[in-house]
Amino acid sequence: MISALAGVVALTGLATAGTAQAATGCAVTYTTNDWPGGFTAAVTIQNLGNAINGWTLGFTFPDSSQKVDTGWSATFSQSGQNVTATNVDYNAAIATGTSVSIGFNGTWSGSNSQPAAFTLNGVTCTGTTTNPSPTPSPTPSPSPTRSPSPSPSPSPTRSPSPSPSPSPTSGKPTVAADGTGTYRTVQAAIDAVASGNSSRKVITIKPGTYREIVTIPANKPYITLQGLGSSPGDVVIVNSHYAGGNGGTFNSATAFVSGHDSALTNLTISNDYVEDGTTVNQQAVALNLNADRAVLSNVRLLGDQDTFLINDSARTYVKSSYIEGTVDFIFGGGTAVLNDCDIYEKRSSGAPITAARTDAAKTYGFLVYRSRITGATGNTTQLGRPWGPSAQVLYRESSLSSTIKTSQPWTDMSGNSWKNARFFEYKNTGAGATVNSNRPQMSDSQAATYTPQKYLAGSDGWNPIG
């Protein structure tokens, strides 16, 4: 399943983490990304004692102004400064030596210091963890470590986006691992772009494998990453992080893209962590997207669990691309149109493809449009499940292969009923596109207002489709 942390476009604080000293049997790492008036917290619980089949984590905020607003991967309750987090079904068991990751968004008006101690099943944690080095917070993102972004909606007065069209492929590349470019790493090229740039900066990347973590921060908009190969498989940006070992799902990504009007074209973003069947938190994000008005064209996104995170702040148009994974591998609270894409469920036992967390106030979540859905086995794959109660997903005019679990293609998640979510299909074809009482179909009149352009227009009339 998923854990997710909030996507934050612009953060002013630092990511901090602390050591909970307090019962034989557990260690806790608590990490926050802060902004004025709010924060996102990622909490990793490591079991150092006997295996447990259900857990409750307790802690006390040091400041009475701190409040839990929305949480994920646990059920949160708060009384005064005291907070309790109880497991949800998919992460109830914690084997000895393994971890689970949970998180929440909160508000505050005080110092926002971390809790001093934690209790697991009523026992104070005495294990310790090493403090990660604080880092500036443009690498926010939830997922199953996942989450709604507190960033304000983009201003309707924002100037038109410079075109993300590809630049010429001749001449010296911006990035080449062999030293024939201006920079050897993708991140070095991004770092060289001035903060607050107002014109498009195209970073061309020579074919090769770039094993690094790439971050386009919120203060660097209008950046294009363009692979120079003959196919997206020729340029591969890859890493191997997973939630249980890297501070939660939101920190596990290979690429963090937060600058608005970012564009990725003709390349692969991959997280090649391999699920081992024993680790509790195996979420491993390839692309963590916080950027509004992002365009992905001819891109491959490769991973297992939680491949592509689309945070609340994001609107994205994904064109002629390939996305693969195992569980909830397209997820988040943002808005996305996947047009002419190939989506592949690679696990033989199947699983849900999407886990949307669309806010109830948003009309549009995920639109899978004129795309192709395939999988490793027949009658095993689900179209999605609601990570949030108001999740919105539409599969429209797409080819659904026999991999789709035809009798029940939607399923519940963490107490959220798929029947209460905004799940629809419209004019799909293929062996997996049968119609029954468990498959809500959108009417023609409804479909007229659920087009790709209407999903993406927002308040500024954004139209990347042309």
TrEMBL record:
InterPro entries recorded: CBD2 (IPR001919), CBM2/CBM3_carb-bd_dom_sf (IPR008965), CBM2_carb-bd_dom_sf (IPR012291), Pectin_lyas_fold (IPR012334), Pectin_lyase_fold/virulence (IPR011050), Pectinesterase_Asp_AS (IPR033131), Pectinesterase_cat (IPR000070)
Task: Tell me its EC number(s), please.
Answer: 3.1.1.11
List the keywords (alphabetical): Aspartyl esterase, Hydrolase, Signal
Q: Where is the CBM2 domain?
A: 19-128
Signal sequence segment = 1-22
Question: Catalytic residues per the record?
Answer: 328
Q: What is this protein called?
A: Pectinesterase
